[in-house]
Design brief:
This protein is mainly beta and 155 residues long. The chain folds into three domains: 72 residues, OB fold (Dihydrolipoamide Acetyltransferase, E2P); 35 residues, no CATH class; 36 residues, no CATH class. The protein is elongated. Strand 7 and strand 8 form a beta hairpin. Strands 1-2-3-5-4 form a five-stranded mixed β-barrel. It has a three-stranded antiparallel β-sheet with strand order 6-7-8, with no helix packed on it. The protein has a two-stranded antiparallel ribbon with strand order 9-10. The termini are far apart.
Length: 155
């Protein structure tokens, strides 16, 4: 009976990430659980991936035979964004970059690099750089055919 209880207790366990091998299509994570280090596949949802840092926590499932553990989630409370409003969703990393989906719109923290075209569609949309509106700024034309002056800020 004791061995059955031990097997059931080991089906789901908490662990601490010790290292990651991200060089394959299914990355493997070395975790320490119950005082022993083991390697496990890191199962991630389609379209999302991350490389957890050493010290992150992990939830380990023992699937089928005891020789095939998998890690299903690797939260890291050291970097988690706190204070989100009900319904908000965030993607974040350990470098203070974040994309936060809020009721009022999308907020991006950090530099943004776009590899491809950017289109803003729909009536009434505008892009602003500082106080300068892309659609609402004016230029002073000094003479016909001449270069225009820089935009007038705030206009």
């Amino acid at each position: 009976m004791t061995s059955i209880i031990r097997v059931l207790q080991n089906l789901v366990s908490r662990a601490t990430v010790k290292g990651v091998d991200a060089g394959s299509k299914m990355q493997t994570v070395t975790v320490e659980r119950l005082g022993t280090q083991i390697g496990a596949e890191h199962m991630e949802p389609y379209g999302f991936t991350s490389r957890p840092a050493a010290g992150a926590e992990a939830v380990v499932l023992q699937v089928g035979a005891t020789s095939h553990p998998i890690v299903i989630v690797t939260p890291d409370r050291r970097y988690r964004i706190v204070g989100l409003e009900t319904g908000d969703v965030a993607i974040y990393d350990s470098r203070n970059h974040a994309i936060i989906l809020k009721e009022s719109g999308i907020e991006i923290e950090g530099d943004v690099k776009i590899n491809g075209n950017l289109s803003v569609v729909g009536a009434g949309h505008d892009i602003k750089a500082g106080a300068i509106s892309l659609t609402g700024h004016t230029h002073l034309v000094t003479q016909e055919g001449a270069e225009t002056n820089p935009p007038t800020p705030g206009v």
